[in-house]
Structures are given as C-alpha cells and as structure tokens.
Amino acid sequence: MSQLIYIGYYLEQMLTNPKDNGTLSFAVLQVVAGLVIATLPIIIERFIIERFMPYRFPEILYAVYLIFVYCSILLGTGLHFYSRLYYWDKFLHVLSAGLLAGLGYTVFNVLISKQLRQTISALLMSLFAATFGSTIGVLWEFYEFTGDSLLGLNMQRYMAKGYLLLGQAALLDTMGDLLADVLGSCLIAIIGYFCIKHNRDWLDKLMFTKK
Q: How far apart, in Å, are the Cα atoms of 43 and each of 37, 38, 46?
C-alpha cells in the first residue's frame, strides 16, 4: 500500500514539475520494479513449484524478503535513505545475506533425505548456509561490476560527484559490501548452528511446507 501511495505521489509531482520528469520517471520505474520483485516468490510458487509439488515457501523467509524489498526500494530509493544514511546500503547487504543464508538451509534440506536430516552434522549445514549466502553476495558484485562496465553506472561507488576515486577509495564500497555479506551469512549460520544443536525441529521453520 505504501509503495502505491509513493507511486501516486511521484506521478503527481511529474504533472506539477514537468522539468524533472526524467528523474521522477526513473524513481517510479524503480518502485514499480520493487512491486514486481516482491511478488516473485508467489509467482514462482504458483506457476513453477505447484506444477511439480504442492509446497509453499517458508513464511519466515518470505517475510524477511518483503522487509528487504521495502527497505531497499521504498526507503532506500524512494525516500533516499541510500544517500541520507551512509550505512543503509551495508545494513541491507547484511539483511539480504542473512536471508540468503536462511535460504541455504532450505536448499540443503531439499537436497537430502528426511532421515539424513535428523543425523547430519549441524556444522556442515551451517557451513553450507554461510557459503551459500556469501557466494550470492559475490555474484551480486559481479552484476554491479558488469553494469558499471557496460552501462556506465556507478553501482560500485567508484565515482564521487562525477570524479573517479583512486586507490583504496575506489574499493571501499565493494569490499564493504562483501564484508557485510559474509557478516550477515555467518551471523545466521552461527544462530542456526546453535538452534539445530538445541532442537533440530528448528529446521522446520526453514522448510517448504505442504499446502
């Protein structure tokens, strides 16, 4: 609902401030993309997963996913938190990496049998989750580098106010993102390790559930 209000506000701004239509149109496009992205798990669930098995995504992972989309699209882009709060981008990297580590537990348990799930090492599962989350973070940096190289974007923040940064200054954003990815993944993996050691039923929260 808040994203729809945001879109309505910027459409009104486009009518009253036609000189800024380029910037405003791009902002609206990003929020519309955010709405589409927010529904991707539902689309995948209904049109792909349901065709092969009657399961749904873990509710806790979907809830965190929606929080991430809200914080990145509406707050980060729409309300300019990325520029207003210096560490907002790093916070989102930690959040997304933790989400992906949780998904790593889900993927790992899909690949093994139910019997093996009760006896397999909690450390092995947690290492997989941490590696899964960190690896997706690395692939995201590849995506940003490709966009910067081919489209002249500045997703890796190697420029400031139109000027190229030099030395370590040009690497700070990328290395900070990677560090945040590892931190978020390892944090969830550590929590997961102790939760599994205490009670293996904890894994049920991260498993696909039957409809």
A: 10, 10, 5
Q: What is the pLDDT of residues 96-149, one digit of tens each?
A: 999 999 999 999 998 888 888 889 999 999 999 999 999 999 999 999 999 888
pTM: 0.81
Axis-axis angle for helices 122-151, 88-111 (nearest 10): 130
Kindly state the greatest CA–CA separation across the chain: 64
**Element containing residue 209 per DSSP (H, E):** strand 209-210
Asked if 38 and 71 count as a contact pair (C-beta separation under 8 A), the reply is: no
Distance CA 140, CA 173 (A): 13
pLDDT in tens, 34-83: 677 667 766 666 666 556 655 677 889 988 988 998 888 778 877 778 88
Report DSSP letters for 16-74, one per residue: H-GGGHHHHHHHHHHHHHHHHHHTHHHHHIIIIIHHH--EE--HHHHHHHHHHHIIIII
42, two tokens: 């539902």
CA distance 86 to 97: 19
CB neighbour list of residue 59: distance below 8 Å, 6 or more residues apart: 209
* DSSP secondary structure of 148-187: HHHH---TT--EETTEE--GGGGTHHHHHHHHHHHHHHHH
pLDDT value at residue 94: 97
